[in-house]
Design a protein that fits this description.
Blueprint: E1 6-9, E2 13-16, H1 24-35, H2 51-54, E3 63-64, H3 67-70, E4 76-79, E5 86-87, E6 90-91, H4 95-104, E7 108-113, H5 120-126, E8 141-143, H6 144-156, E9 160-164, H7 171-175, E10 179-182, E11 194-197, H8 205-218, E12 223-225, E13 231-235, E14 238-241, H9 243-254, E15 259-260, H10 266-279, E16 288-292, H11 295-305, E17 308-312, H12 319-329, E18 335-337
Parallel strand pairs: 3-18, 4-7, 4-16, 7-8, 9-10, 9-11, 11-12, 12-15, 16-17, 17-18
Antiparallel strand pairs: 1-2, 5-6, 13-14
The structure holds magnesium ion.
Amino acid sequence: MGADNRYMAPGFGWMPKNGHLRDPPAKHRQVQDRQRGTGGFRGTVRGMKTREAGKSQPGQRPQHRSFEDLSDDFPVIFFDAYGVLVEAASMMTPVPELLDRLRAAGKDIYVVTNDASRPPEAIARRYRDGEGRQLFGPERIISSGAIATEILAEEIGAKKVGFLGPPASAEMMVQAGMEALPVSEWSADTEFDALALLDDEGFEWREAINRVANLLREHPIPTVVANGDLAYPVGGGGIAAAIGTVANALEGILDTRFIRCAKPDAAMFSRAFLRAERDHRGLQPGDVLMVGDTLQTDIQGGRDFGLKTALVCSGHTQSERVEPLMEALGIYPDFLCDSVFT
Ligand SMILES: [Mg+2]
């Protein structure tokens, strides 16, 4: 896809032009063009560097810092949720105290999460302290589910969307006026404008993979992946496979590329940055610290966008695996912290 076939969409970075998606032959051609080999919506947005530029040069070792000390240097902090603030669907116990300290110091805090299992309002309701106090307003939560919904509604113009995920994950699509059908309700002749891979729960994997593979083989409609994570921590040092694993399997089977709108892709960071910039005139990407527990999503995506990055060893990436993983992936954060609580 050439540069002249794209336009700058606020909050999304470079987007392919569409408008032919309702015409079946053109739709299929265009969808294949969009999904295959173009890297989805990955592209250039203000402050964003290229993917290669995001990789560190050999010798650029991260600085080991305490988060308490490091957070002093940044007016705006983006937190990943799982493995940083959240473990096994609950806020880690010291989080309320941490947030009180950061807010008292005037820090602007956002959660930038690949959680597409429910709308930002519902995510915010789950983030509470021991006394039931809600810790974030929904406007502070940048979720891949919300961005996926906007892409489906505004860019693809989808009216009827098939989805993988629990019922709550489709709420946003319904609120946006789309008809959303879970995989279990599809029949052989169901027609969709688009598919959305939202969350790993709410469906039987084997059946779903086979249904989606056969559907897309016959009708290559736009398919949006709202969470590219391969796994997430479930507590006690364990992990569970995430919807990105399903997406990768399907892309492999079909030899295609879906539209990705979760970290490490630019849409998340662009949206969060634009929101933070409203309260900080002249904010530069380097003024923002992205804190995450996963090199391939939080750190790679943050670096690509030009943010400063801190990897915490409290979740997906355990401290004994940090060195070999950084070497193997060629992804180095600016800073290493044991957790956000030290
Ligand atoms: Mg995480």
